[in-house]
Amino acid sequence: MSTTSWAPDSWKQKKIVQDVVYDDQAHLGKVLNKLNKLPPLVSENEIKRLKKQLAEVAENKRFLLQGGDCAELFDYCAQAQIESKLKVLLQMSLILVWGGRTSVVRIARMAGQYAKPRSKPTEIINGKEYNAFRGDNVNGNDLDDRKPDPERLVGAYFHSAATINYVRTLLASGFADLHHPDSWNLEAWDLAHVRNPQIRKEYQGIVDRLHDALDFMKTIGADDHDSGSINASMNTVDMFMSHEGLLLDYEQQFTQKGSDKKFYNLGTHFLWIGDRTRQLDGAHVEYFRGLANPIGIKVGPSMEPEELVRILDILDPDFETGKITLITRYGHDKIENYLPGHIKAVKTTKHKVVWCCDPMHGNTETVNGVKTRRFDNIAEELGKAFRIHTQCDSALGGVHFELTGDRVTEAIGGSMELSADDLSTNYQTFCDPRLNYEQSLDIAFSIAKFFQEQRSPLRL
Q1: pLDDT per residue as tens digits for the range 1-12
Q2: Distance from CA of residue 423 to its chain's centroid?
Q3: End-to-end CA distance of the chain
Q4: DSSP SS3 for 174
Q5: What φ, ψ does residue 310 adopt, rounded to 5°?
Q6: 212 vs 157: CA distance, rounded Å
Q7: Is 300 helix (H, G, I), strand (E, B) or coil?
Q8: How confident is the model at residue 191 (pLDDT cuts 50, 70, 90)?
């Protein structure tokens, strides 16, 4: 990877958007200096392992599952919430492994997803102008806590560290072991929330076949703890962390040269550039172009095909397989107008990317004054993404969801048949609406069913 005329701080010479203005620059400088001296949150070897797995996704040998909160709060750094989020991602991945007959790469939107881009830096509330809430690593959501505070960057580091540490502890302690009763016990998967009898029967059929497969492996000794590394995947999994690389002052402090002389952001495994910060001549693209981490690019209706090719050339000059994940986000009623052109543009290049569908962001709407998303629209965009890739001789390699393991009521529909009137029951998000635990499993079951149909010799 070429890093000519690039340095971790060369982004400062470019125009930046979504920047945070701090009143006390001296205080900010002290905070950044402190962050620069703190130990990394992830290792170079972990990042390289993720790169290898994403290369296999790009070659259609694995499938990517990425999910988590729209924007984490510091309060989410709690045992129960970390466990519930990890649990739903593990259960979703198990369904996808079975349905797709393929390994799944798991990336959580966790341990750093504390910032949120805003369309405007301020907002009017009750006739008074306030700074917009930019996420817990910038300011507070309470109106009397809207002043950007550099100390919150230190808080972001330590909350990220605590989250990563607990995730590693859980995985090392058998939380992802297929024998673990709380995470994987298929008999305990309660499908009572599925109101439609036919859908419940389909879901139960998948769970039953999963159960039979695991029983068979147990019978022949394939899940024996003492049978060596062949069965390591029965006992634990990789769970990588990710967040949007929004606050470049923060990201710069964790950027250092690795053993291979390339630069890595050791604050997380995977970073992505948002739809609002992907200007070709902007600070974020400049920063990202020097990183050896695998990176994502959000791609929406405003991305011209020619622009997509240019940003790929900037961020992936050495044509590394799987280095770039294109996270498409159009909307269920727009995807057919844009995705084919984007696929065609990439196919004219040497870039071998991971195509990942984010069916959440393009389907946000306001119902009864509340921001929400309809499950049917999410599922529709995802289904169209699979079909369009097939029609364009391409492959959808992954999915990206805003979700939680908690039983919130933020999205309409799903097998629970939540209505607009149900939103107020347990609406908790300070950012965008998320799929709850049951809706997340709904999506996983739907994808598994699609994979089943693709394998069927009777498919027309």
Answers
A1: 444 699 999 999
A2: 24
A3: 44
A4: coil
A5: -65, -40
A6: 43
A7: coil
A8: confident
Give the amino acid at 287.
Y
Of 277, 323, 272, 271, the closest CA to residue 302 belongs to 277
Q: Name residues whose C-beta falls within 8 Å of residue 356's C-beta, 6 or more positions apart in sequence.
A: 64, 66, 296, 325, 326, 327, 328, 396, 397, 398, 399, 400
Ordered DSSP codes for 53-122: HHHHHHTTSEEEEEEE-SS--GGG-SHHHHHHHHHHHHHHHHHHHHHHTSEEEEEEE-SS------SSSE
Per-residue model confidence as pLDDT tens digits over 318-356: 999 999 999 999 999 999 999 999 999 999 999 999 999
User: Taking Cα atoms as reference points, which of 289, 241, 231 lies closest to residue 266?
Assistant: 241
As a whole number of angstroms, the distance between CA 370 and CA 155 comes to 30
CA pair distance 221, 219, nearest whole angstrom: 6
DSSP reduced 3-state for 432: coil
For 196-209, write each residue's pLDDT tens digit. Answer: 787 778 777 777 77
CB 409 within 8 A of CB 423: yes
Using only C-alpha atoms, the chain has a radius of gyration, in whole angstroms, of 22
Q: How far is CA 252 from the centre of its chain?
A: 21
* Backbone φ/ψ region at 68: left (φ over 0), alpha (ψ -120 to 50), beta: left
Residues with Cβ within 8 Å of 326's Cβ and at least 6 positions away in sequence, in order, are: 296, 297, 299, 308, 342, 346, 353, 354, 355, 356
